[in-house]
Design goal:
With about 325 residues, the protein is of the alpha/beta class. The protein has a single domain, classed as Ribokinase (UDP-N-acetylmuramoyl-L-alanine:D-glutamate ligase). It is about 35% helix and about 25% strand. It is globular and about 55 Å long. Pfam families: PfkB (PF00294).
Length: about 325
């Protein structure tokens, strides 16, 4: 498989998870432990794609603190060329969550103000324009200001450069509304898709028509462990697939699983695979990621993914037969 040159622009920050040792007691000191790791939609996907052998360059805002060093180390460990937009007097963005012992969220604090300081001109310097010229794919998330996202989508369109996007959240994905027709693949969950369409889908196979009506040319819509919908506009037609992932008994951490699904799908898409095969690849990578703690597999390789694809039960086509058994 020929490897692609990918320019990733967006969030690369610190995720802090506070795991409570017992059910949360409001207004009291709760025993527990902290876990700290690098995260961010574009960064998670970029690390996965780099570990699969693609040549990845990361451009992300960062502060001048120890958290920035942690992000830089994570990028280096994944084999990514790191080109930070550094603000020495600012803190690197972070997301801090308090979780019940069963993983349910008690509360969270997102300190992402630095992302709002990035104007379009900061992304369109001569150095970054050269990166765009050399890239086979532009990968972004929704963390930067709407004006910057719109400008980057316009540049990608002018250069006929495929643009893939990680939605991040319902509140942020709507920043792409003016540019949906310029996106090749938008990876989102059902809540994020509904934020774009204005209503939830009655069935997973309704997402294609609803999102296409909004101007989107291609996308992925996940629903936790439920069916995953994918569609893409081709020169003469629109291809689509809705697959039901096989059950995964050993779920350790679902954080990053959606980014992993998008990564696997894009890996197949870049190789020219069919929509169904690319989606199956994404499901396999999501399962690999959910079976370990953390938003990415540190040991991910093309060989590990190939083995997972070989041993994974085949995803079922949606809708399932009346018996509930795969067709």
């Amino acid at each position: 498989m020929e490897m692609a040159r990918i320019l990733a622009i967006g969030g690369a920050h610190i995720d802090r998870k506070g795991w409570l040792s017992a059910p949360h007691q409001p207004g009291a000191s709760n025993p527990g432990r902290w876990e700290t790791e690098a995260g961010g939609g574009a960064f998670n996907a970029a690390r996965n794609l780099a570990r699969l052998g693609h040549q990845v360059t990361l451009v992300a805002p960062r502060g001048g603190d120890a958290a920035a060093d942690m992000v830089a180390r994570a990028a280096d460990e994944a084999g990514i060329e790191d080109c930070p937009l550094t603000f020495i007097d600012r803190a690197t963005p972070s997301y801090s969550a308090i979780l019940e012992p069963d993983g349910n969220l008690v509360t969270a604090l997102a300190d992402m103000a630095l992302y709002d300081l990035i104007p379009a001109r900061r992304l369109l310097t001569s150095r970054l324009r050269k990166r765009l010229t050399d890239a086979d794919l532009l990968l972004m998330d929704s963390n930067l200001p709407a004006s910057a996202l719109t400008a980057m989508a316009e540049v990608a369109s002018e250069r006929s450069l495929p643009l893939a996007v990680i939605a991040v959240s319902p509140a942020k994905v709507v920043r792409w509304k003016p540019s949906l027709s310029k996106i090749s693949c938008l990876a989102m969950n059902a809540a994020e898709a509904a934020a774009l369409t204005g209503a939830p889908a009655q069935s997973p196979d309704d997402w294609q028509a609803m999102l296409s009506a909004s101007g989107l040319k291609g996308g992925l819509v996940t629903a936790g462990a439920g069916p995953v919908a994918a569609f893409a506009s081709l020169p003469s037609t629109t291809a689509s697939s809705v697959l039901v992932p096989p059950p995964l008994d050993d779920v350790r951490d679902v954080v990053g699983a959606g980014d992993a699904l998008a990564s696997g799908y894009l890996d197949g898409w870049l190789a020219g695979d069919t929509i169904g095969d690319s989606l199956t690849r994404g499901i396999a990578l999501a399962r690999l990621t959910a079976s370990v703690r953390g938003p990415v597999r540190q040991d991910l390789s093309r060989e590990l993914l190939a083995q997972a694809l070989k041993t994974m039960p085949k995803p079922a086509q949606f809708p399932l037969p009346a018996s509930g058994a795969p067709a």
